[in-house]
Design a protein that fits this description.
Elements (H helix, E strand, L loop, with lengths): L14 E3 L5 E3 H5 L4 E6 L5 H19 L3 E6 L3 H11 L5 E3 L4 H6 L15 E6 L3 E7 L9 H15 L8 H8 L10 H11 L1
Parallel strand pairs: 3-4, 4-5
Antiparallel strand pairs: 1-2, 3-6, 6-7
Length: 198
């Protein structure tokens, strides 16, 4: 992994086609939420399939926890869709057959010249694509468990959600004053929309 991709740094805002062939930027997919980004070998790898089977269950929790999930692999659009549907995933999968990300991050898996995949990584990103944690998964047990991701998402959510402790007196006062931008799901975007309507 490139030396500047470390906790606290901004992750590059790559733009790639998703499983529907629509070009998507990571920042667009993240929105204002925490994001788990999986840099994947692809569906040909049994380790990837097993990790993603676990993520299918976690994703249901992430959806109600206002967190996002994205998988990015070097597969073609067809391979990307087969991988996504094969594990029963319902989140965006990005396709990078030109290996733009692999080259830019310096994560070519040189031990597999046949597939030429990325060295698999799982990143937990704070809003703004800020790196919170990086897991390198060349070996399966280098990948995060679902419980480790839950803990990471809890820590990131505590940092980025001003309404984490809704029992705090200052939050009760803010609500009474109509300052709903501090509360999820209202958030900054919702507050801007309300302001524009006034």
């Amino acid at each position: 992994m490139r030396a500047d991709i470390v906790p606290g740094a901004a992750f590059p805002d790559y733009e790639l086609p998703d499983h529907t062939a629509k070009r998507r930027k990571l920042s667009e997919l993240q929105g204002e939420d925490p994001l788990v980004l999986v840099l994947s070998r692809g569906g040909f790898c049994p380790k990837e399939r097993r990790q993603h089977e676990g993520l299918v269950q976690l994703h249901r929790e992430m959806e109600v926890g206002y967190c996002r999930l994205v998988t990015l692999s070097t597969g073609s659009l067809t391979e990307t869709n087969e991988f996504r549907s094969g594990v029963g995933a319902h989140w965006p999968f990005l396709s990078d057959p030109g290996r733009k990300v692999q080259k830019d991050l310096d994560i070519a898996e040189y031990t597999d010249p046949l597939h030429n995949p990325m060295i698999p990584h799982t990143l937990v990103l704070e809003p703004g694509l800020v790196v919170y944690k990086i897991y390198m998964g060349y070996w399966f047990f280098g990948r995060p468990t679902m419980e480790e991701l839950r803990r990471d998402l809890r820590a990131v959510t505590m940092k980025c959600r001003p309404d984490w402790d809704i029992t705090a007196p200052e939050l009760k006062a803010a609500w009474a004053e109509g300052r709903k931008e501090l509360f999820n799901p209202y958030g900054k975007t919702y507050a801007r929309t309300l302001a524009e309507q006034d």
